[in-house]
Automatic annotation (TrEMBL), chain B:
<feature type="transmembrane region" description="Helical">
    <location>
        <begin position="6"/>
        <end position="26"/>
    </location>
</feature>
<keyword id="KW-1133">Transmembrane helix</keyword>
<keyword id="KW-0812">Transmembrane</keyword>
<keyword id="KW-0472">Membrane</keyword>
<dbReference type="InterPro" id="IPR004714">
    <property type="entry name" value="Cyt_oxidase_maturation_cbb3"/>
</dbReference>
<protein>
    <submittedName>
        <fullName>Cytochrome oxidase maturation protein</fullName>
    </submittedName>
</protein>
<dbReference type="Pfam" id="PF03597">
    <property type="entry name" value="FixS"/>
</dbReference>
């Protein structure tokens, strides 16, 4: 059978006989890498463009159509020492990029208008106390209006739209008081200008938009960057499937190019990337990513297999029922839908603040107007004072209080290896006081490890590793990796379902089932660990036993201790068998654990904790965890998790250690503290400024100074989220 | 004060030119890779050739 690689799915036409492909590249982090990659790729004849994007860690390539195979670029990058894979921009990322550009455009327009209006306002302010003629003042006001009105109409769109959406849904958010404030300030200024009045607030209104857009843009940019990283990670998993394109011909195609009805080959040691049904072959499969169960399941004709299953022993032909966007077990889909509906009811801190804030401010403005009328002022003066109250209380600092902290905190989490999926995840994570861990793949590492490598002589272990290279079995792969084996033993023969054997210097080597190596006698001693797979190795008459299992994450114990020190409740809910869960719970010193739990049971347990008032953080990776990830107050997944779980989780953490869980909780708690502090700062500023506004002595100069002063104070306070205490565990 | 007739439009034109330049730079993708751009400014134009064996 012949295998070819087919990347045509990712290749785009770039006009004029050119083809374009985008590659995600791992490990690009400096100018040196950038230059090396660009030169290395440009050196290939017929390549017309090779440009690295260092921010997103991607390479854009263009070449003359029909001259090159994209696989060559990937090989070239591999020679240069970089792992690369084509990727397709997800629609979610495209939307984030467009939104980010739009905000930057709005910010540019608003900043231009602020600077020019301010240039006109300062002469008016100084002219008001000296010898400016009223005609000149009016002229300057009209010029300001000419700049500020169109600029505000354009740059205010993000706020006006969001406010309108909130009002149509009969709720309120922070953008409602912002929009009302801006529109009233501009409207009143136009009326005042028409009546040749002394004060106009064009500068205050447009400056408010500029400050708020800064916060909005920073927030959006962080989100865009997270998406880009997540997109790269998904691409670099390089999920492919061996698709039959003829009766005996196989093409290795990306999962995105597989359609229902296609037939794919699943070889031993491969992870299935599609959902489907076995039509030929017999094998054992590891479904731990789907059910949490670590015992292998027998698969034969008619057995359904799901994306994420690992094929262990024999080759299978699978008819695809659903490809990249997997259809799931019906049960999990139903649970997930219910849980997701429940979650959308969470109300963000900013919205809660604005729900209190807007009525108070608007009532104050109204009372001010009525108060002045009762005190004998004219309606005109009273309304001007009322609007001044609205302008001075306009939630400039309040609007910045939360996004700026969020931006800085998510940047800090990003560095600690945590990606945010949901905007409000920081607030919810900060409240978490009970953590539920899944076991398989979360507390333990997804890869297999040799547990007793230290007990075996180094030369024997190395030999076993080299022999293991000749087998596709995942356990053998783990042995080979643990031994750091590079060169396979020539002439090694694999006996299906038994093991591998070879003869070196007249001595027979065998690696495989204990019976295959004649080492049954040793097994009784080693088989204490219920989760481990036992492999035997024999060299002539010398026999050894290797115990292979999923090891705990290296820092799991320290992380659990750190969580306990923070007074956070911990428990394990696992779909795995009792002995395996018990062993892990004891090793980690977690008294509360449940084994053999179904997805519905997990949700029931979470609901029970919720009723007791606990805020649950669920950390899980399997497809069976997805509904409980959605049901929990906040959720986290390792990057090795099933697609669905990763998409459902609020946060995703990278790498082997478990420490990002604690780091994220710490960062989130600190961020929430700063958000609250910022809100209090903003409120404190209002408490000082509002009496001044009510008394009617506010001039546009005071409004502008107060607004920028409080905004800068809040921004500076937010920056404190960056300096985090480094010791995590 | 007649000088205003010249100065005010001039100031607005300069501001407008700045805005147009910003929008153009945004459109031409100059903010897409800020990290890379920082390094490109100090990168060598020509790849350093293999050092000659003899001097």
């Amino acid at each position: 059978m012949q295998v070819t690689r087919d990347f045509s799915h990712y290749v785009r036409e770039a006009g004029e006989g050119l083809r374009h492909i985008d590659l995600a590249v791992e490990g690009v982090h400096c100018a040196g890498c950038m230059a090396k990659i660009e030169r290395g790729l440009s050196a290939i004849p017929d390549v017309t463009l090779a440009r690295v994007n260092l921010t997103d860690r991607r390479v854009a390539l263009e070449w003359k159509a029909g001259t090159l195979d994209p696989g060559r670029f990937i090989d070239r990058l591999e020679e240069l020492g970089y792992k690369a894979y084509p990727f397709e921009t997800e629609s979610a990322e495209v939307a984030e990029v467009a939104e980010s550009r739009f905000l930057l455009r709005c910010l540019g327009v608003a900043a231009f208008a602020t600077m020019n209006v301010m240039m006109l306002s300062i002469p008016v302010w100084s002219g008001n106390v000296s010898d400016m003629l009223p005609e000149q003042r009016d002229f300057f006001h009209w010029l300001s209006a000419l700049i500020a009105l169109p600029a505000a109409a354009y740059a205010g769109q993000p706020f006006f739209r969001s406010a309108w959406r909130a009002l149509s849904a009969k709720t309120t958010n922070m953008d409602v008081p912002i929009s009302i404030g801006v529109i009233l300030a501009l409207g009143m200024s136009v009326v005042e200008t028409i009546h040749h009045a002394e004060h106009a607030y064009f500068d205050a209104a447009i400056m408010l938009l500029t400050f708020l857009l800064v916060g909005r843009f920073l927030d959006q940019n962080m989100r865009r960057r997270t998406r880009a990283v997540a997109g790269n990670l998904a691409a670099l998993k390089a999920e492919t499937a061996a698709k039959f394109i003829g009766p005996d011909e196989i093409s290795q195609v990306p999962v995105a190019a597989i359609h229902p009805g296609d037939i794919v080959l699943l070889r031993p040691g491969e992870r299935c990337a599609v959902d489907g049904t076995v039509i030929e072959g017999r094998s054992e499969i590891d479904q731990s990513l789907i059910t949490g169960e670590t015992l292998y399941v027998t698969a034969e004709q008619g057995t359904p297999v799901y994306a994420g299953s690992m094929n262990i022993s024999g080759s299978l032909r699978v008819r695809v029922s659903a490809a990249s966007e997997a259809t799931l077990l019906a049960e999990i889909t139903r649970l997930l839908d219910n849980a997701l509906q429940a979650r959308s009811r969470y109300m963000r801190l900013a919205d809660r603040a604005s729900r209190l804030y807007a009525p108070v401010v608007h009532a104050t403005a109204l009372l001010t107007i009525l108060g002045w009328v009762i005190a004998g002022a004219s309606w005109h003066d009273a309304i001007v004072t009322g609007v001044a109250v609205l302008i001075i209380t306009c939630p400039c600092a309040l609007g910045l209080a939360i996004p700026t902290v969020q931006t800085v905190a998510s940047g800090a989490m990003f560095k600690a290896g945590v990606l945010l999926n949901a905007g409000d995840a920081i607030e919810r994570l900060a409240e978490a006081d009970h953590v539920i861990f899944d076991k398989t793949g979360t507390l333990t590492l997804p890869e297999l490890e040799v547990m007793n490598a230290a007990d075996i002589p180094a030369d024997i272990f190395e030999l076993a590793g080299r022999l293991a290279l000749s087998s596709h079995h995942p356990v053998a792969a783990a042995v080979a990796q643990a031994a750091g084996a590079k060169s396979p033993i020539v002439g090694a023969v694999e006996e299906a379902g038994q093991g591998v054997r070879a003869t070196v210097d007249g001595v027979e080597l065998r690696l495989g089932r204990p019976s295959f190596c004649g080492a049954e006698a040793l097994v009784g001693v080693a088989a204490l660990d219920p989760e481990a797979s036992i492999v035997a190795f024999s060299k002539g008459t010398a026999k050894f036993i290797l115990s292979v299992r999923q090891g705990l994450r290296p820092d799991a114990k320290a992380v659990i201790a750190a969580l306990k020190a923070r007074n956070i409740g911990i428990e394990i809910l696992s779909g795995d068998r009792e002995p395996a869960v018990k062993a892990a719970a004891e090793a980690l010193d977690i008294p509360e654990w449940r084994a053999g739990v179904t997805p519905a049971d997990k949700i029931a347990r979470i609901e029970e904790l919720k009723r007791r008032g606990a805020k649950v953080l669920m950390v899980g990776d399997g497809m069976n965890d997805a509904p409980s990830l959605a049901a929990a107050h906040v959720s986290m997944s390792p990057i090795s998790a099933a697609h669905l779980s990763q998409a459902t989780a609020d946060l995703v953490f990278l790498g082997r250690p478990l420490a990002p869980v604690v780091a994220a909780i710490d960062a989130a708690r600190k961020a929430l503290h700063l958000m609250r502090q910022n809100l209090w700062l903003a409120i404190g500023y209002n408490v000082l400024a509002v009496p001044v506004a009510i008394s009617g002595v506010v001039t546009p100069l005071i409004a502008a100074a107060a607004m920028s002063g409080s905004s800068i104070l809040v921004m500076l306070n937010s920056l404190r989220a960056r300096s985090g205490s480094r010791e995590i565990v | 004060m007649e000088i205003l007739v010249i100065l005010v439009p001039l100031a607005l034109m300069l501001g407008g030119a700045g805005l147009v330049a910003f929008l153009w730079s945004l459109r031409s993708g100059q903010y897409d890779d800020l990290d890379g751009a920082a390094w490109r400014a100090i990168a060598d134009d020509e790849p350093p050739q293999e050092a000659p064996a003899k001097r």
